[in-house]
């Protein structure tokens, strides 16, 4: 057993050695780092966070608090605004061809993947957020926009306001176009200016992500401005002011500073890592309990001690030099006059990652952050996004000048040179290739204006399409395209696109509903297969009684006459007894001797259908549609709609769930009861509701392959609205109702009744029942 004591002795020696290493003076690596830092200072490179003044005046800080999250307290207490239409809202630019787009605000119905008309939702959102957005709008147009990162004096400062900025940009855009849609031009203009200021007045902090958010906002503003200019409502003074705002923007200023800030942030992070205690992470008790694990722990500890006494200084030195080279690359790049010139420079389109052979937490964190950033911008780096923003800015300025020309001359110029000197100082130049901006007036009195885009190839003004991933290697690919200021779509073109989108969405919805219906039918059939075993061997429902709030639960719930001498237990209370109401076979009613008025205060009563113990579905065995109501005698009645359940023999059980369960998640289940569902069809759950703009989809499954059916749709007053007949050869009845009656008039009711008649030729069976 002597070997066991060698481990503690070795550990002690290692700890003593480590302590001596930590106490020794700076080594050569530390001296090399200090020499490098001194040289960088001499060359006027910033290397410390203290060299960046990120503070904002108090008055500006108050205004910024209206635009974004600016304090830790707001983050900690969740007081920051969480909602925005930017996540679920419609697209601001919808192509209707290679160089034509649909004017957002002109559309009578606003189609999105979620709904056939988003205008009501958009109107409701803007009204609910009006006070917040009005205050933010005023703050945006009142002067420069500049935020102070939370914890700016230390490394890895927090920038929660960036998400708020992008969300506000979208919200201002939606408010602009909603106001135009409703003829409120003054409100539209004020929101357009606010959306513009979120780009033109914003001075990003020196982090790379802040500049990227600004570039993203410029792309949103591009779409907003295009839509807003598709009206003659603006005066020349308004357009001139908007043009001046865009002409004041310098997207390149401050880009090299992002590397200086990254360098200082990395240096501060290395310092923190050095100052942290180098815990061993393996106690003496752990050593005695598992001596074999001591050696890997000691080895790891020794490596960390060695790294912190030598390697960490070298890593920091190399990273400082790496960031210096990157800053020099950016300085050279931003001096370029065109993207075609810039993209040939090193580090512009492909940034070399910093590598180290050491296992450094700081380097791992920095590299992971860079990987996340690259993923967020879909592989398009800082300079690429800056070039895109610059080209968009020039397109916006030129387009505004064209509209000002049109307001004066009642037509667009034949050549862009005609815009100068009155509206532009000179002919507009495409930043991408340095050649004149591409312009093409149309016979319809409109025009197409475009830049050749990042590939510097003239594709004739073809609008960009959504990027896609290559199936072979997963790379993000972008088909060749130009940056286009498109002409507005005609009503016929817009209608064609709307019809195509609605057809596509209808097909997607139908596919999703089919999937849900098949999953439902398979789930119920799978549970039903276990019904007989459930009925033969009823599972115990738990304790005979439960003490709830210091009283027997059965005594609390039992609805018995005052003279009753028998005291039922929970099994008796939860035993299902059918009562005939006249709604059979579509609706089956069970009555239980449980006080309805008491139950609704402490819990709920459910009906379980084939409650197998291994059912792992989200829906569980709870009956699809079952309501608990009060009987005239005060009992509980469960009204179960059988049209959504599988035909055949079922095992049913009542279940009691308490608002304050004795045991967490506990549900008390009564004994199983056999019941035969005699329906010839099973409707999908989605058949119970409809979309006012897309209509109703009814799906049902029958027990035989072939069947003939007739669906009769009625108002709640019993008036016949529509009869739809058909047949199926695959067991599935699939009916779409466009909400039109037999006379072609759209029904506007909120609820409808239905009756279905089914005939099965193979067996000769037929049935007529109420449907959803």
Low-confidence stretches: 20-25
Percent of residues in β-strands:
15-25%
| Assembly annotation | single chain
* Count of discrete domains: 3
Number of strands: 25
- Number of helical runs? 21
Estimated structural class: alpha+beta
Helix-residue proportion: 40-55%
Rg for CA atoms: 35 Å
Q: Span from first to last CA?
A: 79 Å
The rough form would be described as globular
Largest sheet: 4 strands, antiparallel
Q: Could you give the order of strands across the largest sheet?
A: 11-12-15-14
Mean pLDDT: 84
Which key phrases capture this entry?
4-stranded antiparallel β-sheet, Immunoglobulin-like, globular, 3 domains, alpha+beta, 21 helices, 772 residues
Walk me through what this model shows:
- The chain is of the alpha+beta class and 772 residues long.
- Helix content is 41%, strand content 15%.
- β1 and β2 form a beta hairpin.
- α2 runs parallel beside α13, α7 packs antiparallel against α8 (185-200) and α7 packs parallel to α9 (208-228).
């Amino acid at each position: 057993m002597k070997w066991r004591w060698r481990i503690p002795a070795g550990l002690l020696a290692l700890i003593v050695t480590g302590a001596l290493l930590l106490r020794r003076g700076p080594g050569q690596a530390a001296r090399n780092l200090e020499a490098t830092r001194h040289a960088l200072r001499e060359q006027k490179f910033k290397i410390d966070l203290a060299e960046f003044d990120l503070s904002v005046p108090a008055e500006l800080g108050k205004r910024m608090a209206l635009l974004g999250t600016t304090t830790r307290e707001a983050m900690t207490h969740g007081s920051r605004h969480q909602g925005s239409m930017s996540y679920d809202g419609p697209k601001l630019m919808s192509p209707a061809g290679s160089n034509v787009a649909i004017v957002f605000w002109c559309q009578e119905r606003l189609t999105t993947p979620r709904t056939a008309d988003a205008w009501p939702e958009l109107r409701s959102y803007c009204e609910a957020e009006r006070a917040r957005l009005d205050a933010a709008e005023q703050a945006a147009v009142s002067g420069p926009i500049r935020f102070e990162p939370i914890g700016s004096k230390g490394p890895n400062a927090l920038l929660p306001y960036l998400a708020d900025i992008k969300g506000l940009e979208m919200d201002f855009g939606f408010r602009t176009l909603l106001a135009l849609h409703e003829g409120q031009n003054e409100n539209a203009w004020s929101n357009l200016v606010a959306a513009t200021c979120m780009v033109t007045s914003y001075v990003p902090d020196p982090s790379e992500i802040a500049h990227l958010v600004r570039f993203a906002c410029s792309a949103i503003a591009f779409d907003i401005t295009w839509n807003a200019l598709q009206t003659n409502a603006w005066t020349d003074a308004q357009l001139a002011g908007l043009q001046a705002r865009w002409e004041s923007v310098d997207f390149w200023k401050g880009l090299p500073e992002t590397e200086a800030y990254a360098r200082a942030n990395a240096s501060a992070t290395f310092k923190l890592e050095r100052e942290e205690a180098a815990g061993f992470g393996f106690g003496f008790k752990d050593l005695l309990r598992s001596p074999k694990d001591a050696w890997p722990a000691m080895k790891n500890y020794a490596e960390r001690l060695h790294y912190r006494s030598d390697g960490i200084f070298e890593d920091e030195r190399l990273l400082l030099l790496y960031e210096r080279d990157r800053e020099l690359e950016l300085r050279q790049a931003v001096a370029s006059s065109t993207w075609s010139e810039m993209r040939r420079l090193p580090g512009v389109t492909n940034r070399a990652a910093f590598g180290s052979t050491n296992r450094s937490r700081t380097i791992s964190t920095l590299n992971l952050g860079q990987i996340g950033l690259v993923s967020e911008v879909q592989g398009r780096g800082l300079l690429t996004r800056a070039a895109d923003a610059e080209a968009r800015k020039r397109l916006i300025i030129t387009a505004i000048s064209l509209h000002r020309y049109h307001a004066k001359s009642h037509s667009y110029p034949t050549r862009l040179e005609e815009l100068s000197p009155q509206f532009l100082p000179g002919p507009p130049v495409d930043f991408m290739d340095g050649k004149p901006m591409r312009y093409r007036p149309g016979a319809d009195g409109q025009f197409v204006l475009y830049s050749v885009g990042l590939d510097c190839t003239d594709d004739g003004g073809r609008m960009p399409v959504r990027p896609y991933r290559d199936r072979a290697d997963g790379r993000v690919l972008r088909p060749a395209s130009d940056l286009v200021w498109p002409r507005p779509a005609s009503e016929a073109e817009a209608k064609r696109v709307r019809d195509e989108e609605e057809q596509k969405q209808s097909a997607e919805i139908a596919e999703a509903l089919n999937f849900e219906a098949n999953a439902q039918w398979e789930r119920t059939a799978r549970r039903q297969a276990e019904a007989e075993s459930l009925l033969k061997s009823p599972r115990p429902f738990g304790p005979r009684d439960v003490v709830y709030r210091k009283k027997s639960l059965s005594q609390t719930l039992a609805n018995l006459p005052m003279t009753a001498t028998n005291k039922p237990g929970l099994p008796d209370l939860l035993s299902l007894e059918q009562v005939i109401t006249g709604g059979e076979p579509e609706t089956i009613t069970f009555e239980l001797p449980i006080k309805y008025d008491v139950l609704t205060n402490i819990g709920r009563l459910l009906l379980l259908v084939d409650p197998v113990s291994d059912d792992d579905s989200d829906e569980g065995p709870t009956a699809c549609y079952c309501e608990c109501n009060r009987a005239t005698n005060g009992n509980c009645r469960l009204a179960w709609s059988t049209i959504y359940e599988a035909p055949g023999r079922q095992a049913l059980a009542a279940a009691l769930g308490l608002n304050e369960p004795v045991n967490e998640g506990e549900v008390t289940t009564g004994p199983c009861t056999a019941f035969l569902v005699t329906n010839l069809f099973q409707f999908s759950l989605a058949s119970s509701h409809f979309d006012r703009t897309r209509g109703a989809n009814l799906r049902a499954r029958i027990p035989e392959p072939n069947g003939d059916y007739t669906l009769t749709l009625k108002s709640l007053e019993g008036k016949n609205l529509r009869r739809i007949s058909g047949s199926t050869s695959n067991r599935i009845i699939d009916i779409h109702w466009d909400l039109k009656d037999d006379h072609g008039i759209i029904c506007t009711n909120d609820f409808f009744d239905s009756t279905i008649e089914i005939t099965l030729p193979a067996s000769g069976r037929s049935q007529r029942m109420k449907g959803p």
